[in-house]
């Protein structure tokens, strides 16, 4: 085929040349005899960098046949760091996630499972915004992650199904998920379902204490074997009667259950005696959550303006049953204690959102009401075979919150400058009927993005950003529910937490859209941190709660350097260095720590549709309150094979290749705690998965119901 194309081009080009000459073609053929030769041109494969940087965001293109889920893709994004509690960008936690412009109002384990259900076959690109604009909620202090899905089929349907299994020593997880989208004339219907089943996830820990009092020793060991089940279903329908109006309705359902039996053995001794404790704990919890979302969008025919009306309702019902049995022994002394607790929690969130958007100006108003009703009852077992209430441990909480907001944002470009300036106003009213506490406060949150291009092609750019944000405490952190982990340790919430205010700013130098150097700061007031304390009744008992730090400032530098030395090799390196200044109380001196975060990745494209990927992640020692998290380094490796032009993808891999585990230390007035934890699902695990993409029809734009951007539901995470 290549030879025929070459001959044809040579022939047509020669005829054109002859007609342009002053002599006749016949005379030329009489004097020139040409010999034609053909050459095979080698195939050339061009791979562009999949990560680029614009004025206010990173843009990461996703290869549909990469066979990765949303969590794995976000781990490759510049400056993005994932943890059990959420997503941070350039060291700032609390980033919000949006899928096709719709906020995923989940966090923690719920957010993790939701992102896992997305596959590279569904995702077109991911955009990382280090700073959220004024149009987003003021508690989007950690920036934003936009996930834009691929276009489905027009007058047809498309689907995706995958199954991933994760196994390791004492760990099993299976995750089937599927999605489907169809389009008929003026109607679109989409649905997705995902199940994450963990039949086994064992963990063990040990704790040593160093007492400042000589002659006193403490040692504790424990183990847990967790099982859990998480299910999610999502379905929506879109009706577009004409090109100017769109109506949408979507329903999401979540169900989660977990069973956490555990045991601990503790020994505390002084010069005179040793007290042994053996505890058995059975903690079972489950919840159901349903969300209904309505949207209406009207595009003005005479301009590029759009009117949007969004409304949604979210309801969550959670319950837990805990049973604790502790046996204490010291010489001839023996005491057996048995008690139980039951918790119930109901959450209801109602939200309304009206906005008007044009090419350069945005404005809108939002209102939300949040209702939470929580109860917890404790009972102790008496020798007479009766359960006796323990009112000192139980609680009842009736919490109400109302937030009204208005915002405006304007964007303009002048020659080499681009400026986006916005202001958000919020009024908040909270009440706790149980404690007769009422709070009313009014806040304003300015935001600004400024970028300057040094050359017409924007190979060199400078971008500056500033924003003020708020972080309201999660409902789980407010609940004074006591969760026992051993006879000498437990965790409990703090209903008196204040919101955190953050001032963020940065300056970024950008080269060729994707090489960046960023310096900046995140200044926190009343930062919410976990804190370890000693129980007043028994100082040998340590508990973890939440407190507000007076001030905590993070000064950072971030570097992103993607590199493609050859067509078959992609290299990516991200580094964040930070200085952490902590002022726990106004009268205390500053505590300073140097931190670093590193992520490096190499992706090799091999023959026979094979690809090999290697990753490294590392963090320094981290500091929170009077606790420290040990340095943590992991390496992952993954091999993928594509079949039938990428419609089938087989994945094999090993995570945490060297089986690294985590640990932390706590500093209290009487002793130092050193705790080492090994969780099977976070240790060395083997992964095997298969994905199948199918469909029928022509390519068209994908539509989904748009949801309000209010993020109250993020706080529902347990």
Automatic annotation (TrEMBL):
The keyword Membrane applies. Keywords: Cell outer membrane, Membrane, Receptor. Gene3D superfamilies: TonB-dependent receptor, beta-barrel domain. Pfam families: OMP_b-brl_3. Residues 303-664 form the Outer membrane protein beta-barrel domain. Its main location: membrane. It comes from the Bacteria. It is found in: Cell outer membrane. This is TonB-dependent receptor. It comes from Phocaeicola intestinalis.
